[in-house]
């Protein structure tokens, strides 16, 4: 199955638009694990097992593993997710962006070493920095477009000189992803839940692309406004998929031994809010 096939299947099977972000911070682990980086796999595996039937995707953030020399635990976790939740696609949140020859190596890392179904990328070095990922048939690639952090304004909200008027940079990225860069239908866009008006604008420019939307939960994004701005369907079919990510609010719903059960409760609550918003 392609990434998009898996995404649609997970949405239908789990009745969910929720993505659980796996950002393991040992300093925030429950007391019996707290501060122990060797327990990253154990913590994340418990979260995955508790939420596997509530999500449309999982999104491990590679920096949280690499910072603790836990790449081997990430590899183990990727295999575990395949075993316990084969229906759920995995998006490796790496935000890579480099010249073509280096991008080829990063693509090997994402799709061959870790076996991810999709990866996040920075598009700001141009198409040749994205193209190596598109050589992997059926894999997905999400381009940073309008991110949830306040500093995104520094570049993404700047106007460009263009034959098409003066689009904002994020609008230009959305047009490229919907159009000439999307050679095999593999691209999606990252847009932040903290900017619902911009989500709506991106959806207007990229009506069919999957949108990965971080920022719900701890970052303060409004789940209902996010769905209304970005989700589109025709009849019973999703025509504009959204993947709404929540990380810290779910991972650290409890600091006790019941952390996995608490994560499940928060995941179910968020899933139900998203489902109600799309109707």
**Beta strand %:** 15-25%
Which overall shape is indicated by the principal axes computed on the Cα atoms? Answer: globular
Count of separate DSSP helical elements: 12
Strand order, sheet with most strands: 2-1-10-7-6-5-4-3
What is the makeup of the main sheet? 8 strands, parallel
Q: What is the fold named in CATH at topology level?
A: TIM Barrel
* Gap from first CA to last CA: 28 Å
Give me the CATH superfamily.
Answer: Aldolase class I
Structural class label: alpha/beta
Q: Total domains, how many?
A: 1
- Based on DSSP secondary structure assignment, what is the total number of beta strands? 10
Low-confidence stretches: none
CA-based gyration radius: 18 Å
Q: Average pLDDT across residues? A: 93
CATH class: Alpha Beta
Name of the CATH architecture: Alpha-Beta Barrel
Word description of this protein:
The chain is globular, with a radius of gyration of 18 Å. The chain contains 12 helices and 10 strands. The protein is α/β, with parallel strands linked by helices. α2 (40-51) runs parallel beside α4 and α2 crosses α12. α5 (100-113) links the parallel β3 (91-96) and β4 (118-121). The protein has a single domain (3-278), classed as Aldolase class I (TIM Barrel). An 8-stranded parallel sheet has the order 2-1-10-7-6-5-4-3. The protein has a two-stranded antiparallel ribbon with strand order 8-9.
